[in-house]
Amino acid sequence: LDAVSIITTKRDGGELSDAQIDWVVDGFTRGAVADEQMSALAMAIVWRGMTRRETARWTNAMIASGSRMDFTGLPRPTVDKHSTGGVGDKITLPLAPLVAACGAAVPQLSGRGLGHTGGTLDKLEAIPGWQADVSVPRMREILADPAIGAVICAAGADLAPADKRLYALRDVTGTVESIPLIASSIMSKKIAEGTAALVLDVKVGAGAFLKTLDGARELATAMVELGTDAGVRTVALLTAMDTPLGRTAGNAMEVAESVEVLAGGGPADIVELTVTLAREMVALAGLDIDPADVLADGRAMDQWRAMVHAQGGNPDAPLPTAKHTEVVRAERSGVLTRLDAMGVGIAAWRLGAGRARQGDPVQAGAGIEMHAKPGDSVTTGQPLLTLHTDTPEAFPGAYAALQDAFAIGESTEKPATPLILGR
Ligand code: URA
After folding, report:
1. Which residues are in the Pyrimidine nucleoside phosphorylase C-terminal domain (predicted)?
2. CA 339 to CA 103: how far, in whole Å?
């Protein structure tokens, strides 16, 4: 076995054998297969694809590059959710404690943001004292405790290390956009995490990896097959990501919005997606309870407070705010017909909510508040957006990203924008 023949096999449209896949993923993890060789192979996979068998083997090889977590024996069923990433997507924050309050254990290993989509850990780190690192024994204790039951934490270095290296390489070699590579990347981490059941929120639209419903359906199908074949009960929903979710994009502001949802308020789209995903998770966990009731009666809020507290955070501490704000106003009256997720995501990122390079710090208070969403009537001079940052030199870059991100039209008809596009 050698790297060059594996690359040329895939380059010429051939199928890789199980032995070739195991060898190349293992060699890459150990440093025996060079970055330039893995980059060439990734590019060949982008063009030639992988069969279902190859994708499953590739996923298993990435899981085998590290250690697998084991949450069997807990007194409660485990279930997790993964979103393929969107702007304003803070759903994990209200969802994990809600599903824990319904009686499941939610082991949620999350990431930090890179580029225009935010990271769940960056959001939670806006809470004073909150810590992303939790040891595996402590995770088990939290999951077993019915008053907490959910842990949102950073993945350890030993969880699918092959994926960590490969994802960093794909990020800088134009090889992210491949359905077998995305599916195996996400599912290797989720299977290694040891959850018994998984709900995938596959985003579709201008602000998502996959812009079309067909592409998103193909990714969802590949991930459900990988999960099912690995013994993880897996369901995927296809949900819209043309416009940001909720009314905020930015770390501390998204925490505040999540707390509003847990208190029984919050934006309708966040509530709808949270409850829809919670129903899928609760059903997969075999629990007979309606999450809408658990959200309404305050039990999810109690669980949130316990969850934040268990990771060193103070749920009552005031959240950080940015030092500078500027308001974007409507230049005419009419109906907001478009508010583009990508434009808002990039603007929030430039204001300091996200990072350009791994390891950069993020600003807790930076981001964008949206005072109107598509379908809302607006009048001349009315605030549309408030931009928040600690670094006012970031405002021009944010305005540039927002230049073509919204439109005000004549129509008073609400555009049809279903949130849940398929299952
Ligand atoms: N998220 C991942 O974890 N991996 C990908 O390849 C794409 C999105």
Report:
1. 335-409
2. 37
Closest CA to 386 of 375, 398, 377, 376: 398
Q: Whose CA is nearest to atom 1 of ligand 1?
A: 186
Say if CB 372 and CB 384 are below 8 A apart.
Answer: yes
Global pTM value: 0.95
Does 72 score more than 70 pLDDT? yes
With CA atoms as reference, report the closest residue to 368 among 390, 383, 353: 353
Structure tokens at 289: 């309870």
Known catalytic membership, residue 170: yes
State the complex-level ipTM. Answer: 0.95
As a whole number of angstroms, the distance between CA 326 and CA 397 comes to: 13
Q: In Å, how far are 125, 154, 169, 196 from 93, measured between CA atoms?
A: 12, 14, 29, 20
Task: List the domains of the chain with CATH numbers.
Answer: 3-49 (1.20.970.10), 80-158+166-310 (3.40.1030.10), 324-409 (3.90.1170.30)
Residue 403 exposed, middle or buried by CB count within 10 Å (0-12, 13-18, 19+): exposed
The string of pLDDT tens digits covering residues 326-360 is 999 999 999 999 999 999 999 999 999 988 777 78
CA nearest neighbour of 219 among 338, 55, 333 = 55
Residue 367 to residue 147: CA distance in whole angstroms: 32
Q: Which tokens hold the place of 373?
A: 């969403």
Q: Residue 329 catalytic?
A: no
Q: What is the CA(336)–ligand 1 centre distance, in A?
A: 32
Is the confidence at residue 414, as pLDDT, over 90?
no
